[in-house]
């Protein structure tokens, strides 16, 4: 014996099925779009890649100007949106080049909006640093102190263009 459904019964059956499915998935916490793992943007306010400092207590933004041979580092807040002036006179950038450790010191370059004695920007003109970052296995790490606490972060240059060395 077969069951026949009329158009009105089909509409009611579809509505009941849709309600049951929606209720089941809603109650289980299922969501079509999972929450992002990080609530901050992938790029900083100046357009550079971000580094996590601590457990996302702060962020660092790195800008490389290959033509000028400069590296600029900005200290940012936990949301990676606003600069955070710190007491440091310089930050350290450590890496390996040809297997030898090299340390670069990026001096503070206070912005006009930074309070006296504090800086949110650090910059160094060093074509050798910029060049060294294009070599594999450079192991680059930034090291700095914020409010007396030491932070380090690994830096990987994003290769989105070809280089000849």
Structure overview:
The protein has 165 residues and is of the alpha+beta class. The chain has a domain of 105 residues: Immunoglobulin-like (Sandwich), CATH 2.60.40. It contains two helices and eight strands; from the N terminus they run αββββββαββ. The strands form two sheets. The protein has a four-stranded antiparallel β-sheet. It has a four-stranded antiparallel β-sheet with strand order 5-4-7-8, with no helix packed on it. Strand 7 and strand 8 form a beta hairpin. It is globular, with a radius of gyration of 26 Å. It starts with 6 loop residues before the first helix and ends in an 11-residue tail after the last strand. The C terminus is likely disordered.
Short description:
The strands form 2 sheets. A 4-stranded antiparallel beta sheet has the order 1-2-3-6. A 4-stranded antiparallel beta sheet has the order 5-4-7-8, with no helix packed on it.
Largest beta sheet, briefly? 4 strands, antiparallel
State the helical fraction.
10-25%
The shape is globular
The fraction of residues in strands falls at 25-35%
> What is the name of the CATH class of one domain?
Mainly Beta
User: How widely separated are the two ends?
Assistant: 79 Å
Structural class: alpha+beta
Please name the CATH architecture of one domain. Sandwich
Could you report the average pLDDT, rounded to the nearest whole number? 80
How many strands in all?
8
Largest beta sheet: strand ordering: 1-2-3-6
What CATH calls the topology of one domain is: Immunoglobulin-like
Number of helices: 2
> Topology as H/E string?
HEEEEEEHEE
Task: Provide the low-confidence segments as ranges.
Answer: 30-35, 159-165
Radius of gyration: 26 Å
């Amino acid at each position: 014996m077969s069951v026949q459904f009329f158009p009105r019964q089909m509409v009611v059956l579809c509505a009941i099925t849709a309600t049951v499915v929606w209720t089941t998935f809603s109650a289980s916490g299922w969501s079509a779009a999972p929450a992002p793992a990080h609530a901050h943007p992938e790029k900083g306010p100046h357009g550079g890649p971000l580094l996590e400092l601590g457990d996302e207590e702060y962020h660092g933004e790195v800008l490389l100007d290959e033509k000028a041979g400069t590296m600029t580092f900005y200290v940012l807040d936990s949301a990676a949106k606003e600069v955070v002036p710190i007491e440091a006179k310089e930050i350290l950038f450590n890496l390996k080049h040809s297997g030898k450790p090299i340390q670069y010191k990026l001096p503070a370059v206070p912005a006009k909006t930074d309070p006296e004695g504090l800086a949110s920007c650090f910059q160094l003109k060093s074509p050798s640093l910029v060049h060294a970052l294009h070599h594999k296995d450079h192991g680059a790490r930034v090291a700095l102190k914020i409010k007396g606490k030491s932070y380090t972060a690994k830096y990987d240059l994003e290769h989105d263009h070809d280089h000849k060395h």
